[in-house]
Amino acid sequence: MTAAFALTAPVLAACGSEGPGGGGGNALEVWTYQDGSSTIQEEFVEQFNETSDIDINLTQVPGENYQDRMRTAMGSSNAPDIFFNWGGGSISDFVAEDMLVDLTDTLAEDEEFQGAFLPTILDAGTVDGRYYGIPMRGVQTVTLFYNQRIFDEAGVQPPETLDDLFSLVETFQEQDITPAALAGADAWTELMWIEYLLDRQGGHEIFERIRNGDSSAWGEPAALEAIETAVELVDAGAFGNDFRSVSYTTDGASTFFAQGEAAMHLMGNWEFSNQLTNQPEFAENELAWTTFPVIEGGAGDPSAVVGNPTNYWSVNSQVEGERLDAAIEFLKVHATEEYAQALIDNGDIPATTNAESLIASSPVPEYAQDQWDMISGASSFTLSWDQALPAGQAAPLIDNIEQLFSGQLSPQDFIEAAQAL
């Protein structure tokens, strides 16, 4: 799933400084996704260049074009030496072609380096049990946000079970309030509902099989039950009648939610930062949050989390010798307390084990603490399918989810199509 931050640069933007090495042909070319967090990468690249014999040239790629540009560049003479990615399926094709440096031994040989990261987050970026990525940004959970004022006025509590959720759908419909905002024009927002419903119904094992590309997992009874539940929510009016025309990337769903037109919003935790920036009064006075409800009788662990565990740096296998040594030193910067503090100051939750000790300095400590508790207490934290699966499976799966929510596919048709991927 894609975080929808404001993206302003229409072309590649590069930055960097001339350090002791003087840059030149020996410099490392580093690509990152350009959004509100990329200023942190700028800052630490500049610091690295002040002391390194080999410079880093940082290129920021606008988010809307990032994946296509990165995939086109890899394997060409214009390929980056180090690049931002989502781990898992987003880099599995590169691993299969031996295009990435296997970092497993590097981590094993440096206990302090490996131990700096939360194991569940570090493991979420693996391919076939091997490490090809190092966490480099904040943790991105999918969280159920709700409007505290609306809930108080209705005399209800956030849902703890699926039955509670359906009851709330009825309650808010009676008050002419859309129960849950949904940006159906961006199908990845619908994916969040499918992921949590399947996780809570079938448990982590089925979810993980799908994440690893085993399409036969869709044949499990729990998968059909989860898909049927999603359709039941649509048919019950959980998302209103016009959700297919609402966009997230243009802030449509978030604004609808903030204006009190919807009671809940299932979204990545970047929603909090977006609301704090765009609707500060709502964020400070009415915005509340909770975990996704459990399904009574389901096999899922209620502490399990889905989302984007974090983003990762991976190293091109063409990087060798002293340039590889410099690349590894750059990766190790992201295990430092200084880097974690920079993420905290930006409103992010670092993927490092020391994050809890830094949370008090967060712009909103209560929210940061709750997010940390969710992350650190998670029995599993699974990368969202649109990033975990290879592109050949992810794109048609998203298309099928869009057709499911729009009524063009029945639950059984969806299952059959998913199994055929």
From TrEMBL:
Signal peptide annotation: none
PANTHER family: ARABINOSE-BINDING PROTEIN-RELATED, BLR3389 PROTEIN
Record-given protein name: Extracellular solute-binding protein
Organism: Streptomyces johnsoniae
Organism lineage: Bacteria, Bacillati, Actinomycetota, Actinomycetes, Kitasatosporales
